[in-house]
Each structure stands twice: as C-alpha cells, then as structure tokens.
Design goal:
With 738 residues, the protein is α/β, with parallel strands linked by helices. The chain contains 26 helices and 23 strands. The strands form 6 sheets. The protein has a 7-stranded mixed β-sheet with strand order 13-12-11-14-15-20-21, sandwiched between helices. It has a 4-stranded mixed β-sheet with strand order 3-4-9-10, with helices on both faces. The chain has a 4-stranded parallel β-sheet with strand order 6-7-5-8, sandwiched between helices. This is Phosphofructokinase-domain-containing protein.
Length: 738
C-alpha cells in the first residue's frame, strides 16, 4: 500500500496536481482537520520498503451513514479535492462508488444547509473515483493479483518451508491454516508452491460424505511411495459441499484416527500480513498507483469509475462497479452451492492452477491416465545458468506425466552429459516430490548447445525413442531449440514436439515477458538493496553504485530500480555517457543541498554489468566521488551470484508449475494431431511465454528470424520501457502543468 501512496503522490505532483493523504481511511475523511494532509515529494521518500500502510487504515462506522459522507464531502471541498484514489478491498471500493453516486446530492444539501456556498462548490460538481485493490486474499474478480497478495503468500511459503524440515525430520503431518474467508487463492497457491498433499478452498469444496476418505487416500498413497511428511493447507473459510465448515482440527482428527499420523496444527494468523513488500508487490503498487493518476486526469463525468488491475503482465483498467459485483457474486455462488460458477467467476488463471495442483498431486489413479497406445516418453533437460523455478518446472512436468501414464526422463548435465555419458534417467514420483522448494538445478545444467555433438545427441534421442522434449533455461535453451528444429531435416529423431520454457534471471528470451528465476533474482536483489540503502541512510551523505547481473538486457536493473527507488539505472540498451553522469551528479548535488543533512534516506544507482565497457561500476563511483567535492561520498556494492537466489520465490514456483503443465499439454496435443509428431509444423517447436495479457506458444523459427537480436542475446523489442519511464519519473521531481 505504501508503494501505491508514493506513486500517487509523486505521480500527481509530476503532473501538476496537489496530492493529499487521508489518514485512517474514511474515518479521516469524515473527521478532516489534521487527518487530511497535503503531501510533498519528500514526504514519501523511503516508503517502498515499509510494510503495512503509513497513512493508516480503519473501519469507519460514520462513513457508512449519509451524515458521515456529508461531512466527508465538505472536507473534500474545503481542501480543494475533486478526485479520490482508494486503495482497499471490495468494501472500501463499494463505499467509494456510493460516495460518487451521491456526490451532487451531498453538495446540494451542504449548500442548502449553509455549510457551503454556491461559490465554494463551483468546479467541484463531479467527483472522480479510481480504485486500487489492496487485499492479501487476492479476492477481487477481473484482476490476476491484488496489492499485498504475493507478499502474504511469501510469508506463508516461508513458514511452510520451515515447517517442512520439522515434518520431514519427525515424519509428521502438519495442518496449516491460512487466511481466506471467501477466497482460496492463498491456500491454493501455497499448496502448489510448497508441494502440499491436499488443500481445502471454499470455491471447490469436497464431498461432505467422502472428503475424509479422499484426503486420506491421497496422503496414504504418498506415504506408500516413501514420502515421510504430510502437509495439508486449509483456508480459514474452507467448507464441504453442504456448506459445513472444514476446520484444521477436523483434518487433524482424521489424519490421526484413520492413518495414525503424528499430526500438528499451525495457524499462521497475522504473520501473513506483516513484513516488507516483495518485489512484485512493489512493482504492482507503483505501476498501478501511477496509472491511477492518469486515470483521474483522463476521466470525464460520464466515465464509469475504473479499477486498476493486472492481467498476466499487463496493467489494465476495469469498471469498478462490475468488478466488485463479480467479486460479491462468488460468495453468492458458494452460498447457493453453485461451485462451478464460483470457480468460473475467479480468473482463468485460478482454475488452471487448481487443475495443475490436482495433476501434480493425484497419483496412481487409473481413471486419469490416457490409453496405453497414447502414452509418451517425454524428456526434460536444463540448459544455461541455474535459475529459481527450474526444479519446480521439472517436478511439475514429471508429476503431470506420471498422473497421465506418460514416462518422464531427465537428461542430466545438459547436452554434454547426453552426448558423452548417455545421462538419461527415468524420473519417479518420490525423486521429484520435494524439488518445488529447491533452488539451482537438481538434474544439472550447463551452457553447451546441441552442436557440441548433434549426431550423438540424435542417436540417443532415437535410442530412447523420445516422443517430446521440454528444454528449461535461458538464451542457450532458446538457441538449443533452434538448433534442434533446424536439424530435423537431417535427423528424424528431432521430429517430435519440442518446447522451451524460459528460465533465466536476465529475462532475455524472445517470445516472453517473463522467465522463471527473474522474480527470485529480483527479490534477492531488492533485499540486498534495502540493506545497502539502510547503510547509506545511516551515513546520510552516501551514494551506493550497485552492479547487477542481466547480461545485455537491462530488465533486472530496471525492475529492481523501480522497486528500490533508485536514483538512476544504467542499462546496456541506453549505455552510459558523460552527459548522463553529469546530469545525475548535478541531481545528487541539488538533492543533498536541499535536505541539508536532515533526510536520512540513502541513495542508490543501479548499473547493469554490461551497461558500458568504459564506465565500470568502480569508475562511476570514482567520478561521483571526485565531482562531489567532499559534499557526499560514493561506494560500490556487488551482490554477484547472490542474485541467482537461494530458495525460489513463490511466484517462480507457481509459474513454473503452471507453465510446465502447459508444456506437457502442448506435447500431448501435437502428438495427438500427428503433425507435431512428424515434425512437419514449425510451431511444433515453440517457446512458451507470457506476452501482455496472454500465455502463448510461438514457433522458434519465427522468433529467431523476426524477434531476436542475436549479437546482444536479447529480444529486439524492449517491453519494459514503461517501467523505466515510471521509475525515472518517480525519483526526480519535474512539476508540469496539466
């Protein structure tokens, strides 16, 4: 929420508007006075890394009454406010839209009662409302994510990861209760991201008579495979299909009585709300807050109040009233036992994740397996540098194959391992079960491409009779797929469906705006920069120049710069010039001169490792130090391979699971059609990616020919320019008239 406030305040000032913070929610709007404060640029410095909300939030009984809203309207007019950006849940947004619908009537009443004059209300005849959704439950329809949801999920996954070690050591079962009164998003995503055995969510309740037997059957099947631990995630609003509550205590009783498991209950409670925002939430709140200001300025009296949302990777605006109505209709559908409708009202991503969870959890169910003659041998290989989510993708692909009756194979140590050692191993369920939380690459990876010995690789493909291949990795994986596709003309063994699942911290693979590992990298980098910034703040007059990875793609530097409020970001796409340095140093001088040593917020400059051959990180710091003339200092910091992250972030685990399952379905569908099986279609060798608001498969040949900048190992089209523009706008005050 603090990131949103910062973006709104600075975005408004940049566009020549006055920005006000209303403290304690609607209660502050009703009370007025010191509860309403005009905000200046420096007031929100350092807010990105702060948890909670620094302007406070509170439920307001007064605002629910018309008399309270009458006072609120008067306070807005008195302070000269004609637009309200509200960050909250569906209740807050509903209240905002009601306020707008009553606005003209409220003004008329204020004039007739003598509280305001006709002159005072001139120019304020219409109220503009824009909604931002702040909710850890992620329960708002028509948006994939709400502000705070992924930060909360991160706390849950971290807690369950810790519990996991205890459960494994003692061969125990743990029942973990998470928040989610009417929405099971946190429970479902935590279940996928931690490799839980079973989840209970309100949208898809189990059969009242059978759920105990079904859960115990799955847990028992996992135990028989050799699994030593059991994790069950229960949403606080979990029910059965007769609307009876399903509690953590109910689940524990069954696990103890039916399976004899030593079972413990952990209720995470308000731990889920605490802590600093993760990188994704900082990005989301900043971009949405900035767009909310634009939405205000573009609004007309006839424009329906918008809600700023996100679909896949694209910030979008949706009608606020309709979104709130859809959200409330989920609870109605559940109450009416229309659970199919409840699932349908959630976004399609939610249902896909639920199916992915089932496909990777339910084993040895013959009813789910395809006929014998359609069972495939599918190979999985990791290529390039390690990235968070590689193991989760391998696990998801393997579990999906096993649930469908296919046979998954891991090619260990890349194409070199295959060519030299025939390093092919069949994957068993127990082998991969715990991989979802592991960083690095359990099957090994290197940067060598198939041309290391393409003939021998084709021989082993033929020997093992692979029916499909999933390559998980970065730009080397992309190039590997291209080489295999080009070699089809000479090697029939490659005439099978093949797909590349991008996984690289650099996020430089053509055909996608997101790569596995990039979110893990960004969280590691943001945590590192927060610590560095604290050090800079303690000494007051110090700038840190931080060198970040990313190859010749400035994505990581730009995204991280947005998330930590970096003063400047240097990328390979733009390079570094003397003029750029001169401008940045001039800004530093001005900034330090204005704060007169009173502002304790540290300053950061992020430099991509390949932004310039001449202006190295050390040289940039030396130039700043020299030009500072002892008025401030400059130091360097290099997080190095810390940026590859340790334990993968929940987002990387989730998307790895979802996208890997889609890759397996891509191979199945291409085999089913026959075209992909014979390698006759260029699209049978594709890259899966998130582009804008869609998950798409794009043929490798098209991407190589039309969308790849080979010399710099990156896509021709830079999709994150908006992020860089917003980042630069929010760190340097440039007031403009509207």
């Amino acid at each position: 929420m603090n990131g949103a406030v910062r973006a709104v305040v600075r975005g408004a000032i940049t566009k020549g508007c006055d920005a006000y913070a209303i403290y304690e929610g609607y209660e502050g709007l009703v009370q007025g006075g010191s509860m309403i404060k005009q905000m200046q640029w420096e007031d929100v410095r350092g807010w990105l890394s702060e948890g909670g909300t620094l302007i406070g939030t509170a439920r307001s009984a007064a605002f629910r009454q018309r008399a309270g809203r009458l006072k609120a309207a008067k306070n807005m007019i008195v302070h000269g406010m004609d637009a309200l950006i509200v960050c909250g849940g569906d209740g807050s947004l509903t209240g905002a839209d009601l306020f707008r619908s009553e606005w003209q009537g409220l003004l008329a009443e204020l004039v007739s009662s003598g509280e305001l004059t006709e002159e005072q209300i001139q120019g304020y005849e219409h109220l503009t409302i824009v909604g931002l959704v702040g909710s850890i439950d992620n329960d708002m329809a028509s948006t994939d994510a709400t502000i705070g949801a992924f930060s909360s999920l991160s706390r849950i996954c971290q807690s369950v990861d810790f519990i996991d070690a205890t459960a494994l050591s003692h061969s125990r079962a743990f029942v973990v209760e998470v928040m989610g009164r009417h929405c099971g998003w946190l429970a479902l995503m935590a279940g996928i991201a931690t490799g839980a055995d079973y989840v209970f969510i309100p949208e898809q309740p189990p059969n009242a008579e059978k759920w105990g037997d079904e859960m115990c059957a799955i847990v028992n099947a996992h135990r028989k495979k050799g699994k030593r631990k059991t994790i069950v995630i229960v949403a606080e609003g979990a029910i059965d299909d007769q609307l009876n509550p399903v509690t953590a205590e109910d689940v524990k009783t069954l696990l103890v009585d039916k399976l004899g498991l030593d079972t413990r209950i952990t209720t995470l409670g308000h731990v889920q709300r605490g802590g600093s925002a993760v990188a994704y939430d900082r990005m989301l709140s900043t971009l949405q807050g900035f767009d909310a200001v634009d939405a205000v300025l573009e609004s007309t009296p006839e424009t329906p109040s918008p809600m700023i949302g996100i679909t896949e990777n694209k910030i979008c605006r949706k009608p606020l009233v309709e979104s709130v109505a859809l959200t409330k209709s989920v609870a109605t559908a559940i109450k009416n036992k229309d659970f199919g409708q409840a699932m349908a009202l959630r976004d399609t991503e939610f249902e896909e994740y639920y199916r992915a969870f089932q496909a990777t959890t339910i084993i040895d169910d013959e009813s789910l397996k395809v006929p014998e003659d359609k069972r495939l041998k599918i190979a999985i290989i990791n290529i390039g540098a390690p990235a968070g989510g590689m193991n989760a993708a391998t696990r998801a692909a393997a579990c999906y194959c096993l649930s469908k009756g296919h046979t998954p194979y891991a090619i260990h140590n890349g194409f070199t391992g295959l060519a030299r050692h025939d390093s092919v191993r069949e994957l068993k369920w127990l082998d991969v079960d715990n991989w979802v939380i592991r960083g690095g690459s359990e099957i090994g990876t290197n940067r060598n491409l198939p041309d290391v010995d393409i003939g021998m690789i084709a021989y082993y493909f033929q020997k093992h009779a692979f029916d499909g291949l999933m390559i998980v990795g970065g730009f080397e994986a992309f190039m590997s797929l291209y080489q295999l596709e080009q070699a089809r003309v000479n090697y029939p063994a490659f005439r099978i469906p093949m797909v590349c699942l991008p996984a690289t911290i650099s996020n430089n693979v053509p055909g996608t705006e997101y790569s596995l590992g990039s979110d893990t990298c960004l969280n590691a980098l943001v945590d590192y920069c927060d610590v560095i910034k604290q050090s800079a703040s303690a000494t007051r007059r110090r700038v840190f120049v931080v060198e970040v990875q990313g190859g010749k793609s400035g994505y990581v530097a730009t995204y991280a710069g947005l998330c930590v409020g970096a003063l400047a970001v240097y990328t390979p796409e733009e390079g570094i010039s003397l003029r750029t340095l001169e401008n940045d140093i001039a800004h530093l001088r001005e900034s330090y001169a204005q704060d007169q040593g009173q502002n304790r917020a540290g300053k950061l400059i992020l430099r991509n490792e390949k932004a310039s051959k001449i202006f190295t990180t050390e040289l940039v710091a030396d130039i700043i130090r020299e030009e500072a003339k002892n008025r401030f200092d400059a130091r360097t910091a290099n997080p190095g391979h810390v940026q590859q992250g340790g334990i993968p972030s929940p987002m990387d685990r989730l998307r790895a699971t979802r996208l890997a399952v889609k890759c397996m379905q891509f191979i199945e569908q291409n085999q089913e059609s026959g075209i992909g099986a014979r390698g006759e279609s260029p699209e049978s060798a594709s890259v899966i990616g998130i582009l804008g608001a869609k998950v798409v498969f794009t043929g490798i040949k098209y991407l190589y020919d039309h969308e790849t900048e080979l010399a710099n190992r990156r896509p021709r089209k830079v999709f994150w320019t908006t992020m860089k523009t917003v980042s630069e706008t929010l760190v340097r005050p440039k007031p403009a008239s509207v």
